[in-house]
Amino acid sequence: MSTELLAPLDLAFWHLESDAHPMHLGALAVFDPSPDLGGEQILDLLADRAADIPRLRMRVRDVWLPVGGAAWVTHKEFDVRRHVRHVRLGAGNFAGRAVDLAGELMERPLRRGRPPWEMYVLTGAPEEPFAVLVKLHHALADGMRAVAIGAGILDQMADSRAGGSRRHRPVASKSWLPGPGQVADLAKGRVEELGRALGIGASVMRASRLELGASSALAASSSGTRRLATAVLDLEDVQRVRRASGGTANDVLLALTAGALRRWMLERGDRLPGADPRALVPVSRRRPGSPPGSGNKLSAYLLGLPVSEDDPEARLQAVRTAMDRNKSAGPARGAGAVAVLADQLPSLAHRFGAPLAGNAARMLFDILVTSVPLPRSALSFGGRPLREIYPMAPLARGQSLAVALSTYGGRVHVGLVADGRAVPDADRLADCMGEELHDLLKVIGP
Fold first, then answer.
1. Which member of 158, 242, 301, 307 lies 3.0 to 4.6 Å from 281 by CB, making a disulfide possible if both were Cys?
2. pLDDT in the model for residue 52
């Protein structure tokens, strides 16, 4: 039976979870209608392809060594039908019903003791689109690895496997004991890692806030409910702003998020916070071609979202300046690199310290804003082209909103995951994203 120790960051995500704060990622993928392909046929195809992904056959099991650790093991009683389901939504307003149901399904923690993932086929009338909702535990995958796993169910990857151009390799066993020739290198590496961890830890302490100044709209005790709201932006409009102002498309999207939050807060009658809310902006440390079993590879930047600034162009400039400063320092330094710090902690620290760390998240940041890269090529399932795909991120304790963005097919798809009780008007915030882009386009002119 294949085994592989959970990396420290994976173990942290595993133990951070509670019933009110499930730690899974998600995506709602919407495909063109399939009048000649019924919902049960779509489900069968999804089950076959998911069963062919070795990573999805593994569950988490505690181990004796290292103390407090856990390992991925192949589930002997794996049954893909426990993980895939078909939900019929009925006819009419498929998009709205699918988004509402996706929010409800994201509330439910994944069942432990089994491989931590689920997929749902959502269907309406034959002439309407259909959707696939994917839920993957964060311990199983970061954003880029989630994309790689999700791609395994699509026609392009399945055709590649069938053609023999790609063969699955079994997940290799990973011993916690170094070989004799590795001891010196390991010791040197640990000293370097310790120095880096101390530097990050000091930055985290300096950046932590005892008095929380963010708007109450972004902070709430968890109700355990989830709501999904979505928006679609034209990528060419985003690029027009980027070409006129400089920086990156991601800078523009972060500025749009800041402007949308400002507009939304003012409409709700909220007072703008005395200090700009902090966004945690994840950064992948994964190298191209890294093996599937390499675990989460994440760091992050901290960014003050300039909601107090009333000029859209000035907001964009403020974001550009802050992100340039973050990139100059690098993703493995500073308070935002708390995930790098987690990678240096022993297993017992994660097992017993995860609840404390989760409760402390609000002292460091107020909202998660993440961009999930997708393949540029056209994608399909069962011969039906992918029309839209909305990424979803987990909520940290004490926070009521997370923003995820993905670019596909010339459009930017925005997924807002909100606490359903704290942010019942998440749809309005989604609308504000498009309105902010319109305002920026007016500022830069034709």
1. 301
2. 93
β-pair partners for 282: 300
Question: Is the four-CA dihedral 430, 435, 438, 440 of positive or negative sign?
Answer: negative
Cross-strand pairs, 133: 28, 120
Give rounded-to-5 percent helix, strand, coil for the chain: 40, 20, 35
Q: Pick the closest to residue 204 from 51, 365, 345 (CA basis).
A: 365
CA 49 to chain centre: 22
Residues sharing a CB contact under 8 Å with residue 151, sequence separation 6 or more, in sequence order: 157, 375, 379
User: What is the β-pairing status of strands 226-234 and 411-419?
Assistant: antiparallel
Q: Which domains does the chain have, with CATH numbers?
A: 3-162 (3.30.559.10), 180-444 (3.30.559.30)
- The CA distance from 143 to 129, in Å, is 25
Scored b (16 or more CB within 10 A) or e, 59-84 reads bbeebeeeebbbbbbbbeeeebeebb
75 touches 59 (CB < 8 A): yes
Determine contact, residues 390/104, Cβ cutoff 8 Å.
no
pTM to 2 decimal places? 0.87
Distance CA 114, CA 159 (A): 28
CB under 8 Å to 64, separation ≥6 — which residues? none
Q: What is the pLDDT of residues 277-300, one digit of tens each?
A: 999 998 877 665 555 455 667 788
Residue with tokens 């040197």: 188
**Cα(201)–Cα(16) distance, integer angstroms:** 19
List the one residue out of 309, 342, 292, 352 whose CA is nearest residue 54: 292
**Backbone angle region of 441, left / alpha / beta, with phi > 0 → left and psi within -120 to 50 → alpha:** alpha
CA distance 444 to 446: 7
pLDDT in tens, 301-345: 889 999 999 999 999 999 999 999 989 887 776 666 666 666 666
Residue-level pLDDT at 183? 44
Residue 238 contacts residue 419 (beta carbons within 8 Å):
no
Phi, psi of 372, rounded to the nearest 5 degrees: -110, 115
Task: For 229-282, give the DSSP string.
Answer: EEEEEEHHHHHHHHHHH-S-HHHHHHHHHHHHHHHHHHHHTPPPPSSPPEEEEE
Handedness of CA 264, 214, 201, 72 (dihedral sign): negative
DSSP collapsed to 3 states, 309-369: CCCHHHHHHHHHHHHHHHHHHCCCCCHHHHHHHHCCCCHHHHHHHHHHHHHCHHHHCCEEE
Tell me how far apart the alpha carbons of residues 199 and 219 are, in angstroms, rounded to a whole number. Answer: 28
Does 193 have pLDDT greater than 70?
no
